[in-house]
Amino acid sequence: MLRWFLGGSRQSGTATGGQSPVTNIVGHHATVINQIGETSEVAERRHHEQMAALEHLRQEMAREKGLDPVVLKPIFDHLDQGDLSLDEIREKAEEAVQAILERARQPPPTSNDGADIDATIGAARAKLATLDTAGARGLLADKIAEEETARRHRLIPLLQEQAAIERLTYDHAAAQTTLRRLAELSPDNTWVWIDLGDILATTDTVQNAAVAYVRARTVAERLTQADPENTQWQRDLSASHSKVGDIQQTQGDLTTALVSHRTALHLSQRLAKANPENIQWQRDLSVSYNKIGDIQQAQGDLTAALDNHHAALCISQRLALTNPGNTQWQRDLSVSYNKIGDIKQAQGDLAAALNDYRAHLEISQHLVLTNPENTEWQRDLSVSHDRIGNIQQEQGDLASALISYDAALKIRQRLARADSGNTQWQRDLSVSYERIGDIQQAQGDLTAALNSYRAALDISQRLALADSKNVEWQRDLSVSYNRIGGILQAQGDLMTALDSLCSALDIRQRLVWADPGNAQWQRDLAISLGRVGRCQAVLSRTEEALTALNRGRDIVLSLQRQSPGWAVLADDLALFDKIIASLDADAPPN
After folding, report:
1. At CA 279, angle to CA 270 and CA 231, rounded to 5?
2. Which residue segment(s) compose the domain that 559 sits in?
3. What is d(CA 57, CA 43) in angstroms, rounded to the nearest whole number?
4. What is the mean pLDDT of residues 71-94?
5. The CATH number of the domain where 219 resides is what?
């Protein structure tokens, strides 16, 4: 480019004086640059002259009035910012001095704002008597900061109580606003950010909840680094890691979630070991064990999951025995029974699972009787009925399962009506519709089952659209599509059924791509492939059906190698083998 620019055209010839155009341009630029430099030097010299004149004026005025020149500096500094002559600056400075001294002579007004406020104003005016405006402003600034801090401290407990009441009355928008205001007033309070994250997790998006939880962790990390021996901050850090882990699990990132929960466990273990008598730290330890067990179960490591849930159960049993009247510890115990029941069911030990679920039910019923208005305990009770219904259905007792599912449904309908903004309760309701639909389908009432599944789909679609980052809701949507596809296929509407089944398959494929280590999602994908394959087989698309079925079978085989204790996989494999064998037998020879 430089060669092209300097070369120009062969016909350009020479400019006036025999010089090329480029030479003229360069010379002109040099002249301009020199002029700019000279102008800059002149401006700088004039500025120094003006500053010197202003300083001379300040010193002269201070001598005339018998003042320290320093006290006049704030006045002159601000007058210099205007477009004033030296005479005008002197006139304005004289006016300011007279006004300041006049204010100093005025006694502070009597007020009802407190003696400390009056004293500060009096001290500021005393400073004005010597024209020490900087000193007067400093006194006032210190007192204002003190009052703002005191007001902030007084506001915080009031706002905390306001947020609690807003949440109790399901005014989630107001509670969010109050908690955000609290976060502004107390940005270094880890639990304000955790509380904000909690309400966002159930009434807003996972992404917004994650922002609040990560902020809580950042605050806790900074405080802990500043004072590593502060056990309260150590506990806050553990709690924030646990919350971040929860949201990572909801987003489908099991590997990172497990790291977060293990960090929380490490902190909890250290605290519990340092002071075994601290009941709260013991409870925190049990919560960490349960969280890790949940992740391991999702990854298909049932043995490790059971070990961690048993560790949590031992702590919960010990705490519950020391104080049977403590409802929190009783609830913790019920949660441990429930989680162990889930593992036993996955391992195929239905009798043991049912015993654990009934232990959970007994505690939940007792808690609800002590306080029927506690919505958390009401939800726990609905979960108990749901889990027991699952076992009864698996055992073939459809009538009892329907009773259990209906008991759960009634509770969930009541909770969802009371707080339509609570996404967890809305999801629970969709699960109940699906469970009842399963029984109706097993009993041969396909029309009723389809209505139940569509009720579940309506909720699942609404939740999935509200937050596409919530992978649990995406999975729920795939379950609804699968259920509806199954009914439509049984009713003979094969093409519509295949569309619904393929919608479920698409979602499940995306979830597996997002987190290949999630064993449950791998099994979901295998089931979808099996359902799509069976529908294609009925449509006489044998080659496509076998492709889907063999792919699903391969996934199940891989899961069996990873999780040999996962009992249901043997049934899955047997079903795949049976369907594939029947299609192979019907396939025309090559």
Report:
1. 40
2. 515-590
3. 21
4. 76
5. 1.25.40.10
